[in-house]
Amino acid sequence: MSIGVKVVERPIHDTSYIRATLTGMAHTLKHLLTPERVTTQYPEEKESISKRWRGTHRMLTTEDGKAKCVGCGLCPTVCPANCIKLVPGEDEQGNRYPLVFEIDEFRCIFCGYCQEVCPEEAIHVGRHYENAEYSREGFVYDLERLMAQTHPVCEMWDPADPKGE
Amino acid sequence: MTTMHALLQAATPSSEPHTLPFFAFTALKLIVVFTVYMVGVALLTLAERKISAWIQDRHGPNRVGFHGLMQPIADGVKNFVKEETYPAAANIPLFVLAPALAFIPALVTWAVIPFAAPWEGRWGRIDMVLAPLPIGFLFILAISSLGVYGIVLAGWSSNNKYSLLGGLRSSAQMISYEIAMGMSTIPVLLLAGNVSMSKIVNQQAFETWNVLNLTIAFFIFLVAAFAETNRLPFDLPEAESELIAGYHSEYSAMKFSLFFIAEYANMVTASALMATLFFGGWDIPFTLWDNVAPHTGLKTFLTLGCFATKVLFFVFLYMWIRWTLPRFRYDQLMSLGWKLLLPLALGYIVAIATTIVTLDALGFARGSVPFHAGLILLNLAAVVILFVLLDRGKIISPAYSRLNQRDVARLRAVSTPRRAPLLPESGD
Which of A16, A28, A36 is nearest residue B323 as measured by Cβ atoms? Predict the structure, then answer.
């Protein structure tokens, strides 16, 4: 109790230690006996995530199992974190395809611009978050790995339906 | 061997001649009691985590074994295989000795606590207590005072300012509350007329439990026991928010674990003391059947269960209060101990002694109904007065209590000369 601290006069029922203790103990006992628990048992049960969740990337494929990407170079251009490495190539029929397509998930800020800008709807951010790895190198996803992902992809925000209904 | 016999005879003149069954059963009791005690303490660490979790609407540890039942084993294995660190500037011998010193007194106190009704079987009467000392209660007072050494030595030998502060706080706190604790039990001894634990239990078993006669003594003992075991709301020696972990900041692996076990062992011992001194020990309430001969094995078993229930209830109370109340401030702790509990305990001794002498002089026999009715009436009046007084917010001073104006003037007078160079010059 230091000098000059303003002291507010309070009624007895606000300052009683005994009553406060008993009330507190009744309160904790009530919680002790209530079977409701707020913990989510994580590996077994998971919280649902938003349809617009932007997580680990995924490259969509055509029916014959090739990447939809045409190597236009828009995503590395728009990427603010500079995490996409793209080397475009062209086959004999003149179809463009990515020779190298790598995303560094460590650099990525998951803004979703790559998905928005993609003219072929090839690269997507996904509704997925369990992407732990044992090494830094493991976070650089190559084209094969991006195509192998199976999780659902993010649904972009639609101005006509802002609340996603 | 003969000297040992003589010593044992001197220590326990009331017990049976020391034959082979006596030694065999003493050894058996030792092994069984301490095994159960240590396993129980290990399980209590789990119980504490479970109860804290349930109070906070969580699940608690539930990964190891069925609902986390194997968690104590996992913790034990972890503590054994962890690296032990020694601070460079620590006093190593004392640093190693301290955890054991904290742990042993709690264990030794159990030697004199009767945990069940005696059993009279084929081998004669077997007391369900490890050492039926006639001075059991004095033994407890002597041993429980030693507990503070472990903590103080841990704080000092670590050579760490937080540890030292924790050790200092605990020595001040434990010595303060030890006095109130010892004083609060004097009325119990006055009623029992004996310091032997089994006599105290017997007196309560045939008459009334001391908690009905001596509620205020029980209240003081309860508060002091919380302070003695360094449990919330009196856990200032470890006070995480100020002192990291207090006296055991520098301890790791099994030595840290020993402090942890010591805390729970102390808790169980204090609970057992509360049950024995104020709640009739192993006595089954509302019946005299369990107190009288023949002392069969069934009675021993049932009274053991009754004692365990009482002890576990107090252990639960410890945990319940820990997860309810916030920590006291240091000045509140000290003023509660010295300004409330100690005078209260001393006054209570006088009141009870006077009442007993008066009731004796009026010709009411000890243990008769009017004798206890008189005590209970006095007790009711005292409880009402005390708790109404406590409720005025004056004795446990809250942070917002009004400071005495005289104190303010005195403090201003002390601080003004020191602050004078800092204060702005006045105009003229």
Answer: A28
